[in-house]
Design brief:
The chain has 262 residues and is α+β, with helices and mostly antiparallel strands. Helices cover 38% and strands 19% of the residues.
Length: 262
Amino acid sequence: MGSIVTPVTTFADVPAAWLDHLDRRTRSTVGARCARADLVVLGEGRGGDLEVTAVLLSAGGGAGAGGGAGAGGRRGAGVVSLPPPSRDFDGSQALAPSVLERERALVFAVVRDDGPPAPIAGPGAVVGEETSGDLERQVAAVRWYAALPTGDAREAALLAAAEDGDPAVVSSALRALADERRTSAVEALEMLADAPDSPPVRGSLAATAMWVLGARDRAERVLGEVVDRTGRDRFRRLWGVREVEGDETLLVAPDPQHVAFA
């Protein structure tokens, strides 16, 4: 088997650069993947495809900001076409197949005119039970997203979900507030991040949503306080970031465009 190479990115150890990185790092939450998909399904690997056993969300042109229409687990028929496993430069298999034979999996798919649905482009489009280890948590987050209300009640539901016990729901809710341009939520996000008992990842996500929504000075202040409460070294570890050897002002992390955030 060939080696696995993960692309990396570097950024300065200052609040603005951190927030830019966290913005990129959190663009592929479960909710964000739902918003980009026409169809979210559960199924089993069969001969390189996914045999669909349940439809969790079906949204025609994509779930989007107003997409509360979900199938809530109704039985589904058909298959989703899965990409072949990645290959290394020497032709060997560099990565395990996205879905193993008879493995249960969650797939975020787009509907095509010329064949069966296929996974969306980007990280996290396929979540295998054996290869990911957190399938059920992500399934729960999809069900939550599919049941979200529309209209005026949506923002309140997203803010309430920021304190959910499922981290995939929390990250999806906070990212959705940013992606749906819920600028009226900035005050509530600031209070959420400033709470002394707020977990560091949740506080970081709230600050990132504020950053995306344009409250940049406030987001930098909030993130600085989250880092102070958490401790700089622990904060870096939580986000998979480390110092560049020989340059303590520069940080290195896996490139966010290759990493899903559940």
